[in-house]
Specification:
Radius of gyration: 24 Å
EC number: 2.7.1.11
Pfam families: PFK (PF00365)
Helix content: 25-40%
Organism: Camelina sativa (False flax)
Number of helices: 14
Subunit structure: Homotetramer.
Protein name: ATP-dependent 6-phosphofructokinase
Bound molecules: adenosine-5'-diphosphate, 1,6-di-O-phosphono-beta-D-fructofuranose, magnesium ion
Length: about 475
Amino acid sequence: MASNGDDEQIKLVEGPAGYVLEDVPHLSDYIHDLPVLTYPNPLQSNPAYSVVRQYFVDEDDTVQEKIVVHKDSPRGTHFRRAGPRQKVYFKSADVRACIVTCGGLCPGLNTVIREIVCGLHFMYGVTEVIGVDCGFRGFYSKNTVALTPKTVSDIHKRGGTILGTSRGGHDTSKIVDNIQDRGINQVYIIGGDGTQKGASAIYKEIRRRGLKVAVAGIPKTIDNDIPVIDKSFGFDSAVEEAQRAINAAHVEATSVENGIGLVKLMGRYSGFIAMYATLASRDVDCCLIPESPFYLEGKGGLYEFIAKRLRENGHMVIVVAEGAGQDLVAESVEQQDASGNKLLKDVGLWMSLKIKEHFAKQSVLDITLKYIDPTYMIRAIPANASDNVYSTLLAQSAVHGAMAGYTGFVSGLVNGRHTYIPFNRITEKQNKVVITDRMWARMLSSTNQPSFMNPPKGTTVVSD
Ligand SMILES: Nc1ncnc2c1ncn2[C@@H]1O[C@H](COP(=O)(O)OP(=O)(O)O)[C@@H](O)[C@H]1O
Ligand SMILES: O=P(O)(O)OC[C@H]1O[C@](O)(COP(=O)(O)O)[C@@H](O)[C@@H]1O
Ligand SMILES: [Mg+2]
C-alpha cells in the first residue's frame, strides 16, 4: 500500500508483467474486527439472480484501463470489477442509506436515485433509504425525505433531481457529524468533479473517526469532464437534444440570404458536447471549444472563414462551447460561483455582436445572424433510453460495492465494463478534448474549418 502523503492510503497491488491494480478502500482496511462480520449475499436466494451462472464477481476480476497495447507493453493499470460479491458486510436490516445530489443538473440524475432505492430494496432487502435535500448543505440545514420504491417509481421519466441540488456549502465535519447522528451507514453521493472531491473529504473524515460507513460516488457531469470513465451518464441525451438546436439554427440560416445560425452549448472547460453534437449533425460549419484557441481577424481567422463559407454555400452554422474564447470576452476580474468554478461570460452573445459588427463594417456581405442558447433546456431533459439503462447499471454497481464493504470509490464504466475507481483517480484532473487526438481531427475534417493554428503576428488568440 502506498501513501500519497495526504493521509490517504492509495491501494496499489502489483502483479507479474507490469500488472497494477489501483484498488479501492474497504471498510476492513481500518476496522480490524470486520472480516469476521460477513453475511451471505441475499441475492443468492433471489429467484431472478440465483439461476444466473457466475452472477457473483470473482474477487480477482479486474478491468484494464488502457485497452490498446503493444505486444511487448506492460499489462498496466487495472480497476476492481464492479458487481455483487458472495459475501456482504452489512446485514440488510441494519442498513440505513442516504442519497445526495450536488452540482449542475444532468439527464439521468433521477434514474440513479431511483435505482439506488430500488436496488437496495429489491436486491438486498434494505428498506431505510433517505434523500438529503438540496446538495451537501442539506445534511445540516434541511430536512431529509424517506425514499421507497413507491415514491421513486416514475421519477426516471422526469428531468432534474427530485432531491434538489446546490453548489457550495460543503462542511465536511458538520456533514459527518450529521451522518453519525442519523445512524447512516451507506452514503451515495451523485455529482461531478467538485462533488467527488467533497465525497473524498467525507470518506477521509469517516475513516479518521473509524466509522463503519461506506461512501460511494456516482460521477455526474453533462460536460463529460471526468477522466478515466468511458463517458458520463446523460452525455448522450445532451448530445441528442443539442441536435434540435442545431437543426433550428440550420433552418434559420438556410431560409435567408447569407444566414448564420450560432448555437451555444454547455462545456465549461471541456468541449465534448460541442464536438459530438457537431459530428452527429453534419450541418455544422465551425465548432469552437475551450481546448482549441481561435482568433477572429486576419488570415486563417474566423471572419475570413465565415466569408468564404457564405460565398460557397450562402449560409453557415457555428457551434460554440460556453467555455471557448473566454480570454477575449472577459473584460473584468474573473468571478467564481459558490463552488469555486469560473463564472463564464456569454461567448455566444459576444460572438454574435462581433460577427454582426464586422460584416456591417465591411458592407460586402449582408448577413443575418440568429443566436440560439439552448444550454439549460438541454440539461433539464429526462435521460434517453440508453442513458436510463446506463444510469441504472451505475447505481446498481454502487449498491453492490457498498454492500460488499467497499468505500471511497465511484462506480464507473471503463472500456465497457463496470468498475470501482478510487476517488483520487477521478478528481486529480479533468477530462478534456485532446486536439492532437484523432477525434478532433475527425471533427475538423467533417466541418473543414480552419485549425486556427497559425495566427498572423500580433493577432489576439482566444483560448480558455
Ligand atoms: N475541493 C472540494 N472539496 C470539498 N467540496 C467541494 C470541493 N469542490 C466542490 N465541492 C462541493 O461539491 C459540490 C458540487 O460542486 P460543483 O463544482 O458545484 O459541481 P460538480 O460536482 O457538478 O462539479 C458543492 O457543494 C461544492 O461545495
Ligand atoms: O448555471 P449553473 O448551474 O452554475 O451551471 C452552469 C454550468 O454547469 C455545467 O453544466 C457543469 O456543471 P457541473 O460541474 O456541476 O457538472 C457547465 O456546463 C455550466 O457551465
Ligand atoms: Mg464540475
